[in-house]
Q: What sequence folds into this?
Protein backbone atom coordinates (compact mmCIF):
# COMPACT_ATOMS: atom_id res chain seq x y z
CA UNK A 1 0.00 0.00 0.00
CA UNK A 2 1.08 3.60 -0.54
CA UNK A 3 0.43 6.82 1.35
CA UNK A 4 1.26 10.10 -0.40
CA UNK A 5 2.23 13.40 1.28
CA UNK A 6 2.05 16.48 -0.96
CA UNK A 7 3.58 19.80 0.14
CA UNK A 8 1.12 22.64 -0.50
CA UNK A 9 3.13 25.61 0.85
CA UNK A 10 6.85 24.99 0.31
CA UNK A 11 8.40 23.27 3.33
CA UNK A 12 12.17 22.85 3.61
CA UNK A 13 12.99 19.22 2.85
CA UNK A 14 14.63 18.67 6.25
CA UNK A 15 11.14 19.02 7.76
CA UNK A 16 9.37 16.57 5.45
CA UNK A 17 7.24 13.83 7.07
CA UNK A 18 9.07 10.60 7.83
CA UNK A 19 8.19 7.16 9.21
CA UNK A 20 7.57 7.29 12.95
CA UNK A 21 10.33 4.71 13.42
CA UNK A 22 12.81 7.50 12.65
CA UNK A 23 11.58 9.53 15.62
CA UNK A 24 11.92 7.12 18.53
CA UNK A 25 11.99 9.38 21.62
CA UNK A 26 15.16 9.70 23.67
CA UNK A 27 13.54 8.48 26.90
CA UNK A 28 12.71 5.19 25.15
CA UNK A 29 16.19 4.85 23.66
CA UNK A 30 17.83 5.51 27.03
CA UNK A 31 15.78 3.19 29.25
CA UNK A 32 17.35 -0.21 29.92
CA UNK A 33 15.59 -3.33 28.66
CA UNK A 34 15.92 -5.20 31.97
CA UNK A 35 15.55 -4.02 35.56
CA UNK A 36 18.89 -5.52 36.61
CA UNK A 37 20.62 -4.51 33.39
CA UNK A 38 20.86 -8.20 32.52
CA UNK A 39 18.52 -10.62 30.77
CA UNK A 40 17.78 -12.85 33.72
CA UNK A 41 14.74 -13.70 35.85
CA UNK A 42 13.84 -11.79 38.97
CA UNK A 43 14.31 -14.86 41.16
CA UNK A 44 10.70 -15.99 41.07
CA UNK A 45 10.69 -17.25 37.51
CA UNK A 46 9.38 -13.99 36.13
CA UNK A 47 11.09 -11.81 33.55
CA UNK A 48 12.66 -8.53 34.62
CA UNK A 49 11.81 -6.56 31.51
CA UNK A 50 11.00 -2.84 31.39
CA UNK A 51 8.65 -0.88 29.13
CA UNK A 52 11.32 -0.99 26.43
CA UNK A 53 10.51 -4.67 25.83
CA UNK A 54 6.76 -4.03 25.61
CA UNK A 55 5.90 -4.58 21.95
CA UNK A 56 2.51 -2.82 22.10
CA UNK A 57 4.31 0.35 23.27
CA UNK A 58 7.00 -0.03 20.60
CA UNK A 59 4.36 -0.59 17.90
CA UNK A 60 2.49 2.52 19.05
CA UNK A 61 5.65 4.66 18.92
CA UNK A 62 6.68 3.42 15.47
CA UNK A 63 3.29 3.21 13.74
CA UNK A 64 2.62 5.45 10.76
CA UNK A 65 4.31 8.73 9.93
CA UNK A 66 5.28 11.92 11.74
CA UNK A 67 4.45 15.45 10.56
CA UNK A 68 6.83 18.13 11.87
CA UNK A 69 6.73 21.86 12.55
CA UNK A 70 8.35 23.56 9.52
CA UNK A 71 9.55 26.62 11.47
CA UNK A 72 10.28 27.85 14.99
CA UNK A 73 7.38 29.04 17.14
CA UNK A 74 7.95 31.27 20.14
CA UNK A 75 5.32 31.27 22.89
CA UNK A 76 5.14 34.14 25.37
CA UNK A 77 2.55 35.52 27.77
CA UNK A 78 0.71 38.79 27.15
CA UNK A 79 -1.91 40.69 29.11
CA UNK A 80 -5.29 41.89 27.89
CA UNK A 81 -6.87 45.20 28.90
CA UNK A 82 -8.13 43.59 32.13
CA UNK A 83 -4.70 42.33 33.13
CA UNK A 84 -5.46 38.70 32.29
CA UNK A 85 -2.54 36.80 30.79
CA UNK A 86 -2.87 34.69 27.66
CA UNK A 87 -0.47 32.75 25.39
CA UNK A 88 0.95 34.69 22.44
CA UNK A 89 2.46 32.90 19.43
CA UNK A 90 5.07 34.12 16.95
CA UNK A 91 6.62 32.11 14.14
CA UNK A 92 9.51 32.66 11.78
CA UNK A 93 7.95 31.63 8.45
CA UNK A 94 4.85 30.24 6.72
CA UNK A 95 1.27 30.79 7.82
CA UNK A 96 1.79 28.34 10.65
CA UNK A 97 -0.93 28.95 13.26
CA UNK A 98 -4.55 30.09 13.22
CA UNK A 99 -7.13 30.00 16.00
CA UNK A 100 -10.53 28.63 16.96
CA UNK A 101 -12.50 30.52 19.62
CA UNK A 102 -13.05 28.48 22.77
CA UNK A 103 -16.81 28.81 22.16
CA UNK A 104 -16.50 26.22 19.39
CA UNK A 105 -15.60 23.52 21.94
CA UNK A 106 -16.14 25.01 25.41
CA UNK A 107 -16.65 21.66 27.14
CA UNK A 108 -13.86 19.68 25.47
CA UNK A 109 -11.84 17.92 28.19
CA UNK A 110 -8.58 19.31 26.78
CA UNK A 111 -9.65 22.97 26.82
CA UNK A 112 -7.56 25.18 29.10
CA UNK A 113 -9.59 28.39 29.10
CA UNK A 114 -7.99 29.93 26.01
CA UNK A 115 -8.68 29.91 22.29
CA UNK A 116 -7.58 26.78 20.47
CA UNK A 117 -4.47 27.48 18.38
CA UNK A 118 -4.29 25.33 15.25
CA UNK A 119 -1.24 24.01 13.45
CA UNK A 120 -1.78 24.82 9.79
CA UNK A 121 -0.46 21.64 8.26
CA UNK A 122 1.22 21.99 4.87
CA UNK A 123 0.69 18.38 3.83
CA UNK A 124 -2.16 16.92 1.80
CA UNK A 125 -2.36 13.20 2.56
CA UNK A 126 -3.61 10.65 0.03
CA UNK A 127 -4.41 7.01 0.83
CA UNK A 128 -5.74 4.20 -1.41
CA UNK A 129 -9.46 3.71 -1.90
CA UNK A 130 -11.10 2.44 1.27
CA UNK A 131 -8.37 3.71 3.60
CA UNK A 132 -8.60 6.56 6.10
CA UNK A 133 -5.98 8.26 8.27
CA UNK A 134 -5.97 8.74 12.03
CA UNK A 135 -4.22 11.95 13.12
CA UNK A 136 -3.14 11.73 16.77
CA UNK A 137 -0.68 13.31 19.17
CA UNK A 138 2.68 11.54 18.59
CA UNK A 139 2.45 8.67 21.06
CA UNK A 140 4.61 8.20 24.16
CA UNK A 141 6.48 11.44 23.50
CA UNK A 142 7.03 14.42 25.76
CA UNK A 143 5.54 17.62 24.34
CA UNK A 144 4.47 21.08 25.49
CA UNK A 145 1.22 20.75 23.51
CA UNK A 146 -1.40 18.15 22.63
CA UNK A 147 -3.37 18.10 19.38
CA UNK A 148 -7.04 17.16 19.30
CA UNK A 149 -7.10 13.81 17.46
CA UNK A 150 -9.26 13.12 14.44
CA UNK A 151 -9.93 10.68 11.60
CA UNK A 152 -10.14 11.81 7.96
CA UNK A 153 -11.13 9.79 4.90
CA UNK A 154 -7.95 10.66 3.03
CA UNK A 155 -8.85 8.53 0.02
CA UNK A 156 -11.48 11.15 -0.84
CA UNK A 157 -10.29 14.27 1.01
CA UNK A 158 -6.93 15.08 -0.58
CA UNK A 159 -6.18 18.42 1.09
CA UNK A 160 -4.24 19.55 4.17
CA UNK A 161 -5.73 18.51 7.52
CA UNK A 162 -5.05 21.07 10.25
CA UNK A 163 -4.54 20.28 13.92
CA UNK A 164 -6.14 22.27 16.76
CA UNK A 165 -4.08 21.95 19.92
CA UNK A 166 -3.77 23.09 23.51
CA UNK A 167 -0.72 23.95 25.56
CA UNK A 168 -0.35 21.35 28.31
CA UNK A 169 0.76 24.22 30.56
CA UNK A 170 -1.07 27.38 29.45
CA UNK A 171 1.60 29.52 31.18
CA UNK A 172 4.39 27.98 29.05
CA UNK A 173 6.93 30.38 27.56
CA UNK A 174 9.69 29.37 25.17
CA UNK A 175 10.56 27.98 21.75
CA UNK A 176 8.80 25.14 20.01
CA UNK A 177 11.61 24.42 17.54
CA UNK A 178 11.27 23.63 13.87
CA UNK A 179 11.25 19.87 13.44
CA UNK A 180 9.05 19.21 16.49
CA UNK A 181 6.62 16.30 15.90
CA UNK A 182 3.10 17.71 15.48
CA UNK A 183 1.02 14.69 14.53
CA UNK A 184 1.30 10.96 14.02
CA UNK A 185 -0.52 9.81 10.88
CA UNK A 186 -1.71 6.19 10.95
CA UNK A 187 -3.49 4.88 7.83
CA UNK A 188 -6.08 2.14 8.27
CA UNK A 189 -8.63 0.29 6.21
CA UNK A 190 -12.26 1.20 6.82
CA UNK A 191 -14.65 -1.63 7.58
CA UNK A 192 -18.02 -2.29 9.20
CA UNK A 193 -17.82 -3.85 12.65
CA UNK A 194 -20.40 -5.48 14.88
CA UNK A 195 -19.79 -6.05 18.58
CA UNK A 196 -20.49 -9.41 20.23
CA UNK A 197 -19.52 -11.15 23.46
CA UNK A 198 -17.47 -14.31 23.77
CA UNK A 199 -18.89 -17.63 24.94
CA UNK A 200 -17.40 -20.51 26.93
CA UNK A 201 -15.30 -21.65 23.97
CA UNK A 202 -13.79 -18.18 23.66
CA UNK A 203 -13.05 -18.20 27.39
CA UNK A 204 -11.22 -21.50 27.01
CA UNK A 205 -9.25 -20.20 24.01
CA UNK A 206 -8.19 -17.07 25.91
CA UNK A 207 -6.99 -19.15 28.83
CA UNK A 208 -5.01 -21.43 26.51
CA UNK A 209 -3.17 -18.35 25.23
CA UNK A 210 -2.43 -17.26 28.80
CA UNK A 211 -1.05 -20.72 29.58
CA UNK A 212 1.06 -20.64 26.42
CA UNK A 213 2.49 -17.28 27.46
CA UNK A 214 3.63 -18.66 30.81
CA UNK A 215 5.81 -21.27 29.06
CA UNK A 216 8.41 -18.61 28.32
CA UNK A 217 10.20 -16.16 30.60
CA UNK A 218 11.22 -13.56 28.01
CA UNK A 219 9.74 -12.12 24.80
CA UNK A 220 6.46 -13.99 25.13
CA UNK A 221 4.14 -11.85 23.07
CA UNK A 222 6.90 -10.83 20.64
CA UNK A 223 7.89 -14.36 19.64
CA UNK A 224 4.48 -16.07 19.85
CA UNK A 225 1.87 -13.58 18.68
CA UNK A 226 3.21 -10.29 17.36
CA UNK A 227 3.17 -9.47 13.65
CA UNK A 228 5.82 -6.91 12.57
CA UNK A 229 4.46 -3.70 11.03
CA UNK A 230 6.24 -1.76 8.30
CA UNK A 231 5.94 1.93 7.42
CA UNK A 232 8.48 3.12 4.86
A:
Amino acid sequence: MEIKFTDTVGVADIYYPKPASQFIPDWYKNVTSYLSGEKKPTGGGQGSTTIKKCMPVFDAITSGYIILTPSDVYVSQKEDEKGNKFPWYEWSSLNLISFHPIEQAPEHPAQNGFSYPKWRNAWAVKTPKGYSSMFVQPMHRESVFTILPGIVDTDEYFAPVHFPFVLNDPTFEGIIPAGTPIAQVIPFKRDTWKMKFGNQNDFIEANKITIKLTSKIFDRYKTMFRTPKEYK
About this structure: The CA atoms of residues 103 and 115 lie 8 Å apart.
